[in-house]
Amino acid sequence: MIAAPEIPTDFTLLQESETHFSSDTDFEDIEGKNQKQGKGKTCKKGKKGPAEKGKSGNGGGKPGGPNRMNGHHQQNGVENMMLFEVVKMGKSAMQSVVDDWIESYKHDRDIALLDLINFFIQCSGCKGVVTAEMFRHMQNSEIIRKMTEEFDEDSGDYPLTMAGPQWKKFKSSFCEFIGVLVRQCQYSIIYDEYMMDTVISLLTGLSDSQVRAFRHTSTLAAMKLMTALVNVALNLSINMDNTQRQYEAERNKIIGKRANDRLELLLQKRKELQENQDEIENMMNAIFKGVFVHRYRDAIAEIRAICIEEIGIWMKMYSDAFLNDSYLKYVGWTMHDKQGEVRLKCLTALQGLYYNKELNSKLELFTSRFKDRIVSMTLDKEYDVAVQAIKLLTLVLQSSEEVLTAEDCENVYHLVYSAHRPVAVAAGEFLYKKLFSRRDAEDDGMLKRRGRQSPNANLVKTLVFFFLESELHEHAAYLVDSMWDCATDLLKDWECMNSLLLEEPLNGEEPLTDRQESALIEIMLCTIRQAAECHPPVGRGTGKRVLTAKEKKTQLDDRTKITELFAVALPQLLAKYSVDAEKVTNLLQLPQYFDLEIYTTGRLEKHLDALLRQIRDIVEKHTDTDVLEACSKTYHALCNEEFTIFNRVDIARSQLIDELSDKFNRLLEDFLQEGEEPDEDDAYQVLSTLKRITAFHNAHDLSRWDLFGCNYKLLKTGIENGDMPEQIVIHALQCTHYVILWQLAKVTESSSTKEDLLRLKKQMRVFCQICQHYLTNVNTAVKEQAFTILCDVLMIFSHQIMTGGRDMLEPLVYTPDSSLQSELLSFILDHVFIDQDDDNNSADGQQDDEASKIEALHKRRNLLAAFCKLIVYTVVEMNTAADIFKQYMKYYNDYGDIIKETMSKTRQIDKIQCAKTLILSLQQLFNEMIQENGYNFDRSSPTFSGIKELARRFALTFGLDQLKTREAIAMLHKDGIEFAFKEPNPQGESHPPLNLAFLDILSEFSSKLLRQDKRTVYVYLEKFMTFQMSLRREDVWLPLMSYRNSLLAGGDDDTMSVISGISSRGSTVRNKKTKPATGKRKVPEAEESSSSDSMWLNREQSMHTPVMMQTPQLTSTIMREPKRLRPDENYMGVYPMQPEHHQPPLDYKQQEEAARQQQERAAMNYVKLRSNLQHAIRRGTSLMEDDEEPIVEDVMMSSEGRIEDLNEGMDFDTMDIDLPPSKNRRERTELKPDFFDPASIMDESVG
C-alpha cells in the first residue's frame, strides 16, 4: 500500500506533550516530531516550527503583521478586497488573482494560508472569520465547530445554492480559482509540505461536517483540487517518459560520444520528477480516501453528482492511472442512485470514456457487469437520463457490436415511437447505427446509381420491414421524425421510393408485397410532410417554431423537388393503386405539399389534367369516407386563387359537383316517391351519392346547389315514416349541418341582408327541431349523431356568436328551452353513464375485444365533453350539471378529468352558482338513497359513505385559498342547512327532521370555512334548532352533533400545525430555520372576529338568509385538546344537559359564569402550550444534519435489490491511486494510522 502523504498541520498544533486525536478528520502534528532537527521532514525544506509560526517577517506576535488589518491586505494605505469578494465579482483575471496570492504566500505563508482558509469558509456562506490566534492554537474540529456557530440562522442558502446569474458565475469562478492555483503552484509551492497539507486537511475536515454548506463547498473544492492534481500528475508522467527516453538514448551512445554530465543531469532530473510524482500521488490518495469515498454516497444529491462528474474526468484525463475496475465500480454502483441528476452524471462520465475507442479494452469487464443496468436506464422516469443512456448504448454499439444482444437492441428500438422527442431521436440514431449505417463492398459501385438500383433501395426496404415488424402501423410519422436528424439523405430519397413502387423488380429481386407497398407509401407520405412542414408530428414538441433562413431555404428546395417528382409520378401511382382505399387515401394527400407554381413554370399542365382525371375516377369508384374526404381536400389544395391553375381545377370541381347534385336530386325524387319500402339498391345509390356530396361540402362551399331543401325532405320523411336507413339519416344530418355552417360563414364575412339572416334563422331552428326529434330514434348511431350535431349548433348559435363586434348576428342567437335541455341531459344519463358491459350497441355485433371497448369509451367521452361545453359556456342552465357532478366518483376512471375540468370552469364563471350546483348534486344522491332505503337507513352503509366521500372530494376542489371561495362555501352551507331541516318529522319535534343525516355530509365542507364564518354558519344553524334538539344525545341526532362540532372546532388548527411542524424533521438547513407559526395569533378571538361576524351577518341578510340574534357563547372548545374531549362533554359545554323534567332549568347567569371560567382555563392552557412549543422549536432548530455517513441503501438502489450481485468478480478493496511504477522517497508517519484503513471506506458496507 502506498504511504499516505504527510499532512502535518500547524493548522492544528497541540500544546500538550501526549498524542491526541480529536476526530477522524483532523490532521494533527504531534508535538515534538517537528522540533527534532534532522528527524522529520518539516525541517528539511526550512519549514517553520510552531514557535516561529506567524512571525515570518512581521515582527513580534502581531497576528496579522503590519500589512494586514481586519483580515484584509493593505497596500499604500488602500484596503484590498478579500479573495472571496474578488472571485465573487469575477471581473479580475484569475491568473492575476492567483499570482497576487502566491506573492503574498512567498512573503508570509501563514498569513496567505489564513486568507485561503477564510476564502473556503466564506465560500460556504459562513460569516465567521478564522483569526490568526485560532489558526495557531485551535484544532480542526474546534475551528469548524466555531465556524458552524457563525452561520446565519435566518437562511439556509449559501453561495453554491443561491439563484441568479452572479452566483452561477461564482461557482465557475470558484472552480477556476482552484485549478489556476494548483497550476501556478505546480512547480514549487505544492511540494513545500505545508500549503497542500494544510488545504487538504481543511477540506477533508469540512467535507466531514454535518453542515450541508460546509460539506457541499469543501467537496466541490476537494474534487476540483484533485482534478488539478491529476493534471499535474499527467504532466509529470509525460516529463518522466521524455526524460527516460533521453536518458536511454544518451546511455546507448558509444562511450566516446556519451556525455556523462548529461547522463547525471538526466538521472537527477528523473529522480526529482519521481519524488514529485510520489508527492502528488500521496496527495491524491489523501483526497480520494478522505473525501471521495465518503462523499460519493452523501445524502445530498448535488454532492454525489460532483464526485461522479470529477471521477469521470480523472478516468478520461489520466486513463493509465484511473481507468480500471477499482474506480469504474463507483460509477457502476452510483448508476442505481435514487436521484436522476446523479444517474445522469454517471452516464455522461461513461460517454466520455466509450467515445475513445482506444479505451475500450479497459472497459470490457465493466461493460459486462453493468450493461443490463444501462439498458434498463433507457426507460428511466427522468427523460434526460433515458436520452443519455441511449446515447451511451450507441457508443457501446460503435465500439463493439457483439456486446449488445438482440434483446438489448429491441429494448431500444421501440423507443423511436416515444412521445418524448429527445428520447425518440436518440433511439432513432441507435436504430440507424445498428441497421442502416453499414454498407457492403458492392454498394460502393452503386453510389452513382439512382432509383431502384441505388444503394438506398435496400435501406428503404429495411426501414419498411422494421416498420411492419414493430406492429405500430399508425405511427409512421413518429418513426420518420425519430430518424429525421440522422438519416435525412435516406428519408429524402423519394426517387428511390417512387421507383420501388412503380418499376418492375430487377432479375432475382423479390418484389414488395401488398402490405409492404402500403407501408412504403405511408412512410413516403410522412417524409414528404416532415420536409414540407419542418415540424414534428402532433404530440412531439410544443408546436411550430420559427425557421431559420437556412431551414427555410431547405424547405423550399425540398418542396420544389417533391413537386417536380410527384407532379409526374402521382397520376401513375393513383392509376396503379386506384382500387386500394388505404393506398389512395395516403397518395391523395401529397398535393397538399406541392409548390403549385411549378405546374405552370415547369409546363406540367398535362400532368395536372391527368391528376384531376384520376381524382374524378376515384370519387366515382369509392364510397369510403376517408377516400372521399382525401379527394375533397386535394381539390381544396389545388383550388388556390393565387395560382394560374385555379380556373382549370375550379371547372373540374364544378363539373363533378354538378353531376353529383343532379344525380342526388334524381335519385332522391325516385326514392321518396315510392309508395312501398325502397329496395336496397336504391338506398345504396342515394347513400353513396350523399356520402360524396357530404365529403365535398365539408371543405367546399356548395351553397349555390341549394342542398338544404333535399336534405330536409329526406330527414322529414325519416321522422314521419321511421324506416329511413340509419346511414342515410346520419349523412343527411351531417350534410345539413355543413349547409348551416357555410350559410353562417357567408353572412358573417359579407354584408348580408335581413332576408339572408331570417332565412338562416329559420333553417337553423328547423334543423334543431329535426335533431331533437332524432334524439328519440331507435338507432343508437343516429341518436349519437343528432346529439353531437345539436350540441355543436347550440354552441355556435349561442350568445357567443355576437362576440368580436358581430352584433348584427343577434337575431340568430338561439337558447334551448327547458324541454330541450332536459332531453339533452337525459341522453347523457342514458348513453354515457352506463357500465361497459351494458353498451352492447356500440360494438355493432363485432367481437367485444379491448379495442372496441376503448373506441366505445372514446365515443362516450366525446358525447359528455360536448354537453359539458354547453354548461361551461352557459348555453344550458348550470344546475343541469348537478346530474353530471354526482357521477364524479362512480365514473372517475372514465370521465373524472372531464367532470373535474367542468367544475373548474363553472367555478370561474360563477362561484356561488357552482357551489349551489355541487350541493344540489349531493342532495339528489341523498334523495335517491332515501327513495331506495327509506329514512331509517344505515349511516355506515356503502351508499351513504359514498356520498360522504363525494362531498370530501368536492371540498378538495375548492383549493387552499379560502378567501377566494368564501362566499361560495357559505352559500353551500346555507343551502345544506335548509335542506337538512326542510322536511320536519311528522312524529313531532322530539324526532329528528327527515333529512337531518344530510348534515353529516355537509360537515365535509366545514374545513373550508374561515373561523369567523364558522361562527356565522353556526348562528344560522341555531335558527333552525329548537332547545329540545340541543339536548338530544341519541344516535339519530349524531349528524347534528357532528356538524355543530365541525363548526365549533378549528381553534386547535394553528396549534396542531405547530406540533406537526416540529414533528416533521427536515433534511436541510433551510427547513430547520422555518419560523414557528405560533406567533400568528396576536388578537383575542372575540376581537379578531367581531367585525367579520357583523359583516357576514349583513351578507346573510342580503342573501335572504334567516337571521337570529346572536346568542352569548356559553363556553368555548376552540382551545381544548381534541383527544381529551368526548362528544358528550363537548356538547355539555355549549348546551348543558337538562335534568329530569321535574327539575327547573339552570339559571342563565350561572351558565355564563361557568362558561367564562372554562374559557379562561382554556386560554391559560393555550398560553402554556405556546410557550412550550416555542421553546421546543428554538431548541430543535439546528444547522446540523445527521447525514454524515448515510447508509448506502438510502442513496442507491439495485434492480435486484442486492448491489453485491452487480459487482461480482470485481476487486472490492479500495485501491490506492497508483501512478506509473515508482518508489516513494520517504514514508509518512505523521498521519493518523487508521485514516486510510480500508474498513473506513464504503466497500465493506456495500459488500
Walk me through what this model shows.
- This protein is an all-alpha fold and 1247 residues long.
- Helix content is 60%, strand content 1%.
- A 3-stranded antiparallel sheet has the order 1-2-3, with no helix packed on it.
- Strand 1 and strand 2 form a beta hairpin.
- Helix 33 packs parallel to helix 35.
- The longest helix has 40 residues.
- The protein is flat.
- The N terminus and C terminus are likely disordered.
Can you summarize this structure?
By secondary structure, this protein is an all-alpha fold.
- Gross morphology is flat
> Largest sheet, if any?
3 strands, antiparallel
- Report mean pLDDT, rounded to a whole number: 78
In terms of DSSP E residues, the strand content is: under 5%
How many strand elements? 3
Structural class: mainly alpha
Question: Key features?
Answer:
1247 residues; 3-stranded antiparallel sheet; 3 strands; disordered N terminus; cell division; coiled coil; cell cycle; Cohesin_Scc3/SA
Give the secondary structure arrangement, pairings included.
Layout lengths: L67 E2 L2 E4 L2 E2 L3 H7 L4 H14 L1 H15 L8 H6 L2 H9 L16 H21 L9 H13 L4 H40 L8 H36 L5 H17 L1 H4 L2 H10 L5 H15 L9 H13 L6 H17 L6 H8 L7 H15 L20 H15 L5 H8 L4 H4 L2 H9 L11 H20 L15 H28 L4 H7 L9 H5 L3 H17 L3 H14 L7 H28 L6 H20 L7 H15 L4 H24 L4 H21 L5 H17 L21 H14 L18 H23 L9 H4 L6 H18 L1 H23 L8 H15 L9 H15 L17 H5 L8 H14 L2 H5 L6 H11 L3 H12 L5 H4 L12 H18 L24 H8 L13 H33 L11 H4 L7 H4 L35 H5 L1
Antiparallel strand pairs: 1-2, 2-3
Helix pairs in contact: 2-3, 2-6, 3-7, 6-8, 7-8, 7-9, 8-9, 8-10, 10-12, 10-13, 13-15, 15-17, 17-19, 18-22, 19-22, 21-23, 22-23, 22-24, 23-26, 24-27, 27-29, 28-29, 28-30, 29-31, 30-31, 30-32, 31-32, 31-33, 32-33, 33-35, 34-35, 35-37, 37-38, 38-39, 38-40, 40-42, 42-47, 45-49
